[in-house]
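In response to reviewer comment 3 from the previous cycle, which asked for concrete evidence that the modeling workflow produces usable outputs, we include below a single protein chain processed end to end. The sequence was submitted unchanged, and the resulting structure tokens are shown without manual editing.
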Amino acid sequence: MKQAQAAALKLYAEDIAEKGLASGCLMGQILGTERQVEGDREITLKEAAGILGLVVGTVSRMADDGAIKDNGISGAGRKVWLTSVLLQKQRRDDKELAADVEELRKDRNRIPDEH
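The workflow returned the following structure tokens.
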């Protein structure tokens, strides 16, 4: 899994560079990619739910909406691509981090400067 995660993060960074996004931008706006990466594999919806900290139904809806790439099979044979799940997790983490940074900036402005 570490190889697939590293490949997913590399691909994510390449997408950022290709789209010319600044490091301070919300990375969650980047759409998934169709490119296959080395070490990628299909995982079950239950495994994806565990990685994302969600329930299986939510992961299924995310795949329906195209937020996570799946194998195109419906029912018990449905699986999703590990890199797609990892990218979705990274996007969500980036968005949460950006929100935390913004909150800290607001807090900084409320604290009187007494130096």
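The helical segments are 2-19, 45-52, 56-64, 82-110. We consider this sufficient to address the reviewer's concern, and the full set will be provided in the supplementary archive.
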